[in-house]
Every structure is written in C-alpha cells, then in structure tokens.
Amino acid sequence: MTEVTDALLYLDGVTVSFDGFKALNTLSFVVAPGEMRAVIGPNGAGKTTMMDVITGKTRPDQGTALFRGSADLTKLDEAEIATLGIGRKFQKPTVFEMHSVTDNLLLALKGDRAPRRVLFARETLSERARIDEILETVRLSAVRRRLAGELSHGQKQWLEIGMLLAQEPELLLVDEPVAGMTDAETADTADLLRRINQTRTVVVVEHDMTFVRALDVKVTVLHEGSVLAEGSLDHVSADPRVVEVYLGR
Ligand SMILES: Nc1ncnc2c1ncn2[C@@H]1O[C@H](COP(=O)(O)OP(=O)(O)OP(=O)(O)O)[C@@H](O)[C@H]1O
C-alpha cells in the first residue's frame, strides 16, 4: 500500500462512542518520526481512549489511524500492532517483583511471560550486551542484581520503561510516568525520555506540568475528545480556553 502521509502516527477524524457518549470526537493527532509529544488535558478528555485506539484495544466508530503512513491501526489487533513497533507503558508498573532487575529485562527481551522457561535457559552474549545497554539507558546498572520488588517506585517505573525498550519499539506510548514520583525522580524521568527520544518517537500523557515543562516538546491539549490547543507549553498555557478547562483548575 502506498504511504499517504510522512507522519509516523496519523489520526484523523477519529470518533469513539460509548453508549452515545463521544470519548473521542473527530480527533486529529499527527506525530512526526523522531518527535516527542506531550498530551495533557482534564480527566475524561479522552487521553486513555486515544492510546487505546492507537494500540488496537478500542476500535473507533469512524476515522483514520495510520502508522508509518500505511499500516491501518483500525484493522489490526493488539499483538499485531505491538509487533509493528508500537509499545505502551501503562501507569502502574507491572514488573516481576520476585525476579532480579536483570532477569526482568531478560524476560522482556525474550518476549516470554513464562519466567521459569526463560530463566532456566539463561541469556546469550548478545542478550547480555543488550541488557547492559538498557540498564545504562534507564540508569539501573548499580541495582541490576536487586529483586525488582525491592526497588523504589521510580526505579520500578524505569525498569518497566527498560522492559519496553527491550522490545525495540519505534513508537513508545507512555501513560503518566511520573505519578507518585519524587521531584528528583520526576526530573530523572524527563531526562530518560529525552535520551530515549534520541532514537525513538515518544508520546507521553502526563498531568505534572513541571515534568511537561522539563520535556520541552510540543504539547497537545485534549478536551472532550478533541484537540483544544497545540504548540509549545508557553503557547498553550497562554490560551484562555486551556486555562479555563485545565490549567486554571
Ligand atoms: N469503556 C468505557 N465505557 C464507557 N465510557 C468510557 C469507557 N472508557 C472511557 N469512557 C469515558 O470516556 C471519557 C474519556 O475517558 P478517558 O479515560 O479516555 O479520559 P482521560 O483523558 O484518559 O482521563 P484521565 O485523565 O482521568 O485518565 C470519560 O468520560 C470516560 O468515562
């Protein structure tokens, strides 16, 4: 199929209704290859529903959703979309608490959720090199042998981001990564996403404005299932409609 857009992610006219209520209402959202985009908006604005459409969890009633200009996300299932190169990190970390940091990454590399089978086989040299690289990226090298259950909340979130990186996604969707983090962890997470963004495209949903400012990227404000404003954080913050529905609250 020929590419109809240069965008990595292209949503246009996407509508999702739940019993007549439009969680997304003719939403347009376009992300260029290599971009990092922050998505903000009040509770119920449709942020999660948008992520669900991108990952194939929710089917839109109407609209276009393309990845790399040709893959129709409305026709693929969640596993196919993950294989295409879209990875998602949910808000709550779901690491294997009883396994070490390294073993969690090994499990993610193998793409196998059966710890006994994977860990019995141990890792190959190339897997070990890749694990070292990911540990470096997510700054967990010093705690690599610790059980994941012993990590701080922030470290668990970084481990889970590392597990996502193991799958080599071209596009990472990250849902409220800094909720519950300390200020220092929040600043480190902004640095981490900026490092990741050097080689991958990132869409991050977050309510924490200090974090969004630290990312220093284009911001999309969702409201009632549509884009209310888009641009730099300073630009959208100066928009009276954004202040009224979100920032002023
Ligand atoms: N499965 C569902 N059935 C019915 N209504 C739903 C369903 N999923 C979402 N909604 C509604 O759709 C609207 C958008 O929800 P969504 O979770 O996408 O918003 P959000 O921007 O992610 O909010 P939050 O910041 O609270 O996570 C909400 O009013 C929600 O109640």
From TrEMBL:
Location of the ABC transporter domain: 9-249
Gene Ontology molecular function terms on file: ATP binding
Family annotation (SMART domains): AAA (SM00382)
Domain of life assignment: Bacteria
Organism, as annotated: Dongia sedimenti
Record's protein name: Urea ABC transporter ATP-binding protein UrtD
Pfam families: ABC_tran, BCA_ABC_TP_C
Classification via InterPro entries: AAA+_ATPase, ABC_AA/LPS_Transport, ABC_transporter-like_ATP-bd, ABC_transptr_urea_ATP-bd_UrtD, BCA_ABC_TP_C, P-loop_NTPase
Key words of the record: ATP-binding, Nucleotide-binding, Transport
SUPFAM superfamilies the record matches: P-loop containing nucleoside triphosphate hydrolases (SSF52540)
Entries under Gene3D superfamilies matching the protein: P-loop containing nucleotide triphosphate hydrolases
